[in-house]
Amino acid sequence: xxxVSLSTANRVPRPxxxxxxxxxxxxxxxxxxxxxxxRQNGYSAARHALSQLSPEExxxxxxxxxxxxxxxAGFPTGVKWGLMPKDESLDKRYLLCNADEMEPNTYKDxxxxxxxxxxxxxxxxxxxxxxxxxRGYIFLRGEYVDCARHLNRAVEEAKAAGLLGRNILGSGFDxxxxxxxxxxxYICGEETxxxxxxxxxxxxxxxxxxFPAAVGVWGKPTCVNNVETLCNVPAIIGNGVAWYQALxxxxxxxxxxxxxxxxxxxxxxxxxxxxxxxxARELLEDYAGGMRAGSRLKAWQPGGAGTGFLLPExxxxxxxxxxxxxxxxxxxxxxxxxxxxxxxxxxxxxxxEEFFSxxxxxxxxxxRDGLPWSVKLLRALELGQGQxxxxxxxxxxxxxxxxxxxxxxxxxxxVEPLASALKYFRNEFEAGIVHPAHAEHNQPTALEV
Length: 449
Description:
By secondary structure, the chain is of the alpha/beta class. The protein folds into three domains: about 35-245, NADH-ubiquinone oxidoreductase 51kDa subunit (Rossmann fold, 3-Layer(aba) Sandwich), CATH 3.40.50; about 255-340, Ubiquitin-like (UB roll) (Roll), CATH 3.10.20; about 345-430, de novo design (two linked rop proteins). It contains 18 helices and eight strands. The chain has a four-stranded parallel sheet, with helices on both faces. A four-stranded mixed sheet has the order 6-5-8-7, covered by helices on one side. Helix 7 (about 145-160) links the parallel strand 2 and strand 3. Helix 2 (about 45-50) packs parallel to helix 6 (about 115-130). Belongs to the complex I 51 kDa subunit family. Keywords: 4Fe-4S, Flavoprotein, FMN, Iron, Iron-sulfur, Metal-binding, NAD, Quinone, Translocase. It comes from Pseudomonas taeanensis MS-3.
């Protein structure tokens, strides 16, 4: 049985017209294989797309729906698809699914791949038709062993049913799909580093431009989309743009539904498919059950370790990108983490920056040298051995490693939680400074020397 599932402690109905991603999930957590998936309207959107829609019409529907990338960056999917070259002579095009889910505190794609592998395959089939891609790869985090096993079985089922391979459903469209397990590097979540790794090279990000749409894997036009992003495509094609846009709460600038969650010291940690625009407070209190008895909310991150910390007073912010940006950070993956008042922010940040430092590809100087420097300073502060000026140095590092200062977005994401912790909990960092008078008082005597 899968060890990742939607929370059942506070079960809510999952009708097909409001929960396009999760309504087919089994209560026992077992995968939905091909026969069951097709009995539940599976691959009907793919049949419609391949028989009645042109690639341009599919792309336009996805663009009109307002679907944005669900991996954390939030770039409009239809716009990204539109960047692929129109030249029909470029017959080798690739669709890559970014399933390298290594963002700490994020596990949404794992749920979809373990329990609904055919939803991802159908989404990739429709997307490949729109992109005129003849081959696809699911670049999967190597530790996701169950995902790999379930996806490979689902691919074989789809092949046997004529849903992958040559002349799919008699449409004349050919599409092959492969599952590729990575070796386990966080940087592979960056699309050009993923491409480098897929080619068998060191997982370093690449300079852009050229963008992957022009020069991607093996030098050919390539589109990279996240698992959850691709899983939205069948519902958009099957139910229409207006229906998809109406899923979100009124006032949300993002459309559709989103897998969201809360972890930490909450009563019912879990994962739910919810409409964009739901207030974070409702997510925490009504779905996660609020904080555990004896715990008080100190801070929370809205979407993974690479997003900034927010305070309890920010819980009324609606969960969509622009609203979360207004209170000072990014929505990221939408899986939030609650910190209680027992957590020391210096120790937490030291642990987080150690992870980001270790996962740096080392290609550019600010990231390669700046992140280990932040770890060294944070470790000293954690031990009460910080020196005057250390906090100011950390603030400078947050600036030096910020957006536009490094080769890719790894370092800016790494220092975003640090910058917010320095802003909101500076006193905890100051507590780790050895003040001159105290240092002089604790100097060893001549005899001790």
